[in-house]
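The instructor's notes for this session suggest beginning with a concrete chain rather than abstract definitions. Hand out the sequence below and ask the class to guess, before any prediction is shown, which regions might be ordered.
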Amino acid sequence: MIYYVSKVFWRIAAPTNALVLISAIVAFWAVLHSPNCVAWLAAAVACGLVIGTFTPIGMALTVPLEYRFAFSTPDSRAPTDGIIFLAGAGNGVMVPVLSTLSHDYPTAHLIFSGFIVAENVIKSLGADPARIIDIEPRPRTTSEDAFYAAALLKPKPGERWLLVTTAIHMPRAVGCFRAAGFQVEPYPVEFRTVRSHLFTPFAPGSGALSQLDTAAKEWIGLIAYRLMGKTDALFPGP
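After discussion, reveal the predicted structure:
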């Protein structure tokens, strides 16, 4: 019994959650006692915070992004010209992925866009430094990732290039590469959700707000990039 009471108590008493709840109470108190535009605006903002903090809306927005491109292990026997790594995935994920792919495709070039992999990492993998290509000047956006890579690598029809980035970012990344005339094979990493148990890892609080921010950034990015003509579709898919 104490275990469950402590869990419920912390859901309310955690600083982030407590501040959100207090803000909501104050806002609705203001609406009840002085119903003006400012009070209603404060109440609307408080509602948004409560929803973002205590519901899995961030996860619901993340799932369609992460599973837009069904994950399947590429055929390591198929000839592969290069593997493009986009900055964004955490080192805890990128290093083992880099290790696996560099060994599965021993002749493929390893292209890094937006970051430089430390020399000690390359040495630890036993990869030939001649395979390593850094895209310069260093791209600042996903659109620049795609256009700089296309200009440097000059992909030809029939060539096979793997694109490695976070699963949530893959739709926008693929759309940018297609707009640049660069056909890539998606290899998403660092999934934040599990499709068979979508809401199991959900925990209310600052983590939920952070996930909502991340998902919202990608959806807004998809809309903005499409309006600017930087992607080939509003929601790029297979």
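Then share the key points. The two ends are 49 Å apart (CA to CA). The mean pLDDT is 81.
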